[in-house]
Design a protein that fits this description.
Strand content: over 45%
Structural class: mainly beta
Number of helices: 2
Largest sheet: 5 strands, antiparallel
Shape: globular
Number of domains: 1
Helix content: 10-25%
Radius of gyration: 14 Å
């Protein structure tokens, strides 16, 4: 059962920077979720829900790929309005509440997987 989890100061800081930004694409690579934002940064979210913002070019360089090599999923969700963190045992869920939909970033510490799903809501 998912229960609300506390975010730490660093997570709060990163989340504050992405409020108002629009996710354009996302992908998972090496157990890490990557969300390309319209502000020129990639938001990386690790298994334990630690996170960071990296300029797009630097992130792709660190991965050793260019944008055309990545299998990304386009998303039309509008700007991020809020983020909520939940936990269920060894699993974590970060819910991005966007203008038009929600993005769910889910991880499992014990099984070592990461997945991202979008849920379209009725437009306002």
């Amino acid at each position: 059962m998912w229960t609300a989890a506390e975010t730490n100061k660093h997570q709060d800081h990163v989340i504050a920077h992405v409020i108002g930004a629009t996710p354009l694409q996302y992908f998972v690579h090496d157990e890490t979720a990557y969300i390309l934002l319209d502000i020129g940064f990639i938001w990386n979210i690790y298994l334990d829900m630690e996170m960071g913002l990296v300029p797009q070019r630097m992130a792709l360089s660190e991965l050793g790929v260019d944008a055309e090599q990545l299998q990304t999923t386009d998303v039309e969700c509008g700007p991020i309005e809020s983020a909520e963190l939940f936990e269920d045992g060894e699993e974590r869920r970060l819910v991005l509440n966007c203008e038009q939909s929600q993005l769910f970033i889910e991880t499992s510490l014990s099984r070592r997987w990461t997945r991202i799903n979008a849920d379209l809501r009725n437009p306002r």
